[in-house]
Amino acid sequence: MDNIPDEKTPLLCIDNLRVEFATYGGKIRAVRGISLEMNEGECVAVIGESGCGKSVSAKSILRLLPRRQAKITDGRIFFDGIDLLSLSEKEMEKIRGDRIGMIFQDPMTSLNPTMTVGKQIAEVLTRHQKISKAEARERTIEFLRLIGIANPEKRYREYPGSLSGGLRQRIVIAIAMCLNPRLLIADEPTTALDVTIQAQILDLMRELRHKFNTAIMLITHDLGVVANMASRVIVFYAGQIIEEGLADDIFYTPKHPYTWGLIKSMPKLNSGERESLVSIEGVPPDLFADLKGCAFAVRCEYAMNFCAEYEPPLTELCGGRRVRCWLNRNDMPDALRPEWIKSERTDVREPVINGGLE
Q1: In what order do the strands lie in the sheet with 215-219?
Q2: What is the pTM of this model?
Q3: Residue range(s) defining the domain that contains residue 159
């Protein structure tokens, strides 16, 4: 195992990850050079529209991508100082489910319909720990009680098909959390659940996070879930990170036009006025092609000719914020920058291309 020499590194560190899928139509460049970090006990939300690379990046961490179609062409993934991409499959199996857990999108397809839910949780315990089946059963029932399932002895013997959507999701969370992983990847954990059950699931995840100091990577489309759960937000677009910062900064002072569009598309229930929802015009770029310039330029109302020619770097702002947009350059004329970008202007550090804007 290759270890990072610096002991102060974060729990998770992804450096310049690139993933391609081989298809009959050519190569899909699903992830195009993402870099991110997560600390222990932190909840980070990953947002963006479908197909932007969120789930692919998450599955790359656990190396769950289809081997025949998917290929990690560049980058490194460090977890707790270990380079995950250098591990053998046998070594990786010791980390999956034990030190890194994952909640998949659909609880019905994630569970085996031919096995009782209790046995599916107990199987995780016996696979990673040297305990008897009887002890695994006792610990499973105890954990079912911990996550708020009534009459856990009875539920232990039931099959997934006899449970409601909310209960199935709790079982999936139990499978992912029963070994107290240091990192939990939650891929759309509240999809297809009603609002009441959503709130219960989020409360459960929040409680387990505080109890076990588990870091959570929350992948979601629901900005309301983000506001309730995450301390930091990472915005994906076309296989890249285009903005990153504290949740309050992202919601109140977004610095990228795409993030601005996402925030504006949220309905305002307390405004007292009836307003039409704002939508982001256009479609995402074709990831089969070699993209030139800013991937969002064709949909951006603030785009300039320069944006279509040169890809913006991931610029660092103050307070740990990062944004991939030319509008945030110090030498950008104020007349070309919208008011929401100019608000609370911070110092930036960016490379200079050809001496400046053209």
Answers
A1: 100-103, 183-187, 215-219, 43-47, 232-237, 240-246, 322-323, 315-317, 348-349
A2: 0.88
A3: 107-180
